[in-house]
Amino acid sequence: MTDRVVPIDLRRRSDARLQVSRLAAELFWRDGVSATRGEDIAAAAGIATRTLWRYFRSKEACIEPVLVESGRRFMAVLAAWPLNASLEEFLESSRQPGPVVYTVDDVRAMRMVRLGFDEPALRSSWLVVCDDAERQCAQLFGERLGQDETSREVKQIAASVAGAVRVLNDSLSVDFVDRGVTPDGRDVLGMLARAVRDGSSGRIGPAV
User: What are the tens digits of pLDDT across the range 99-110?
Assistant: First the structure.
């Protein structure tokens, strides 16, 4: 006897797209991307397939909210970083000791990033999320540099930093999914700080 599916109300629940995204990530991981249809995701969510397509442009795009949710902490860290502290000082002051604790959504996201190496459409969805993170970085870096976020220099720095952080995320995802490696929090923060400094040629990182 199967459990009754409780339909997800995409019009009323603020986290409805995330709930659908979680289901899609689980189905992709369990059954494979090619074997999972939009109809399967809709059925798991208890909604009509036409409703799914109203909120997601493709079945692969369904994973984007999970990827965004997992990356939210990184953007929250950058947003909370005070101008009068270096990135290393700020990260060290906010660091929790011991290994990184991955949430269920973190694990889902890393699995989707890893699958994306073999599934170009999933990889495209990951790059869409990274592109949005790049725009957010431009806003934050523009403030630190005292420049307009739309300037070419700020955009170039944001693109380089976002690219470096994406590569770091790719690497951490492969390490975890393929080898079960959970890094130490200090190591991750050190790698994050280096990615930001190296990606910006040292422009982003020092106190202002």
Answer: 888 999 999 999
CA distance 89 to 207: 9
Q: Are residues 20 and 40 in the same domain?
A: yes
Q: CB 75: neighbour CB atoms within 10 A?
A: 15
Residue 7 lies in a domain: no
> What does the pLDDT look like over 125-181, one tens digit per residue?
999 999 999 999 999 999 999 999 999 999 999 999 999 999 999 999 999 999 999
How many domains are contained in the chain? 2
SS (H, E, C) 12-67: CCCCHHHHHHHHHHHHHHHHCCCCCCHHHHHHHHCCCHHHHHHHCCCCHHHHHHHH
How many whole angstroms separate alpha carbon 55 and alpha carbon 40?
A: 15
